[in-house]
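Input.
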Amino acid sequence: MLTPDTGPRLGVNFREVRAARLRPGRLFRCGDVTAWTPSEAAFLREQHGIRTLIDLRTPREIAKYGAPQALLDAGVRWVRSPLTGYSSEPVDVPRPSSADVVRYYHGMLVDAADDCWPNLFANLAAASPEPFMICCHCGKDRTGLTVAAILDLLGSPVEDIARDYGASAPDLVVQVDRFRDKWVRRGHTRDDYLSRMRVTDETMRTWLLEVTERHGGGPVRFLRQRGSAPEQLRLLREELLTP
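Output.
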């Protein structure tokens, strides 16, 4: 069984993505990139060789929470590739159900601004010859869908994709207080926000099944229809596929 990284805790929700058909040591994910300390960022660069951070946060989030300064100081390239344009309505309730989250993810895929996904996959392809990391605010929703689409491109099993998604829960539950401003702003409670952090494999498994049913194939089939360049998808696949 493929398991998430079990090394020392770094940052927030940080880990190497591990799945069948994915080249080891190339793809990483995390949340709250402003939480890295200088020593952690240096370790990340030296130990894992990460050269590029693909940041899915919006300009408004970056203005509010800041740049990944410790990573920049460690020499990591910062590539901003925001996912925007979709509604958060399905998950605006205090404790969204798995079905609510699945609806939210469908909107993120289909209703994102026209250039978001093609630009993102162009940036991923450009970064892929070296180890790189993907982030959003918590590192579970936008990051989770992006990683799922990459693994779908590689032909990784659904169970591996779902397991990687569900692996966000343990660290996010432990570090939930880092996100206090988000539940306070919404008028929710800490327990409400904890329920959001307890993501499960089943949510991703359900979403992938419904994407296939709705679009006649997995996320990458839809992204090809949406305008992702075939040569960039091919480069990404060639760089990340296990030799």
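The domain at 12-228 is CATH 3.90.190.10 (Protein-Tyrosine Phosphatase; Chain A).
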